[in-house]
Amino acid sequence: MKSGKLIVLTGPSGVGKGTLVRSLLNRHPELYLSVSVTTRSPREGEIEGQHYYFVSRSRFEQMVEADELAEWAEFAGNLYGTPYFALQQRIDEGKWVLLEIELEGARQIIDKFSEALRIFILPPSWEELERRLRSRGQDSQSAIARRLLRAKDEIEAAREFDFQVINDDLEIALKGLESVLFVNDGK
Ligand code: 5GP
Fold first, then answer.
1. d(Cα 159, Cα 116) in Å, to the nearest integer?
2. How far does residue 28's CA lie from ligand 1's centre (Å)?
3. What residues form DSSP beta bridges with 99?
4. Centre of ligand 1 from the C-alpha of residue 52, in Å
5. Residue 181: DSSP 8-state
6. Burial, 9: exposed, middle or buried (Cβ in 10 Å; 0-12, 13-18, 19+)?
7. What is the spatial distance between Cα 1 and Cα 53, in angstroms, rounded to a whole number?
8. Is residue 187 predicted with pLDDT exceeding 80?
């Protein structure tokens, strides 16, 4: 029987999770990336249903009420959550499902899916994280400040995760992820 697997990738905003995930999916198209719902406004170039499902706060709250989210959290003033249905469906089909989510959500997932493999992406240094967040120019100064504040708490929790991968050089970080997923085979 095919066995599905849930892989949770967490790390502070600006650490480069998005780039890592895109590269990982390019190299391993058999992986399925869960598309989250969020109340955040789309950034330039973001596509509905591909990067996120962009919803109003009231629609998000309805989904929480109806128990449609496997996890959810507030992050830097916006709500983010993982739709439960698609996630469970893919796992039942035997797929490996990737969640790219923040710390509170990752904690909820481990309560519900104890077999989930959890990986934390670390920056090479605090200074480099700050530089990356500021230089991507996508967020306002106040949003960057909120993200940096949150990053401190997240990095302190890195030890809760099964594996930690440092994203300094992209290729080396990718190899690290691949070895956790495919060689080590996690748990
Ligand atoms: P961004 O606004 O930069 O796209 O995402 C902000 C943070 O929210 C990132 O750390 C990202 O991993 C996290 N995030 C994205 N989708 C979800 C989700 O469905 N649930 C949770 N808990 N966090 C999410």
1. 16
2. 22
3. 8
4. 10
5. I
6. buried
7. 32
8. no
Which residue has 């070895």 as its token pair?
Answer: 179
pLDDT tens column, 114-133: 999 999 999 999 999 999 98
185 C-alpha to ligand 1 centroid (Å) = 25
- Between CA 30 and CA 14 the distance in angstroms is 26
Residues 6+ apart with CB under 8 A from 172: none
Considering the domain delimited by 5-183, tell me its CATH architecture.
Answer: 3-Layer(aba) Sandwich (3.40)
This prediction has a pTM of 0.92
Sorted by sequence, the CB contacts under 8 Å of residue 12 that are 6+ apart come out as 123, 129, 147, 150, 151, 154, 155
Return the domain boundaries, the chain.
Answer: 5-183
How close is the Cα of 148 to the center of ligand 1, in Å? 14
Q: Which two tokens stand for residue 41?
A: 């406004």
Residue 1, pLDDT score? 45
Residues with CB under 6 A from ligand 1: 13, 17, 36, 40, 71, 73, 75, 80-82, 100-102, 104-105
Instruction: Give the DSSP letter of residue 49.
Output: T
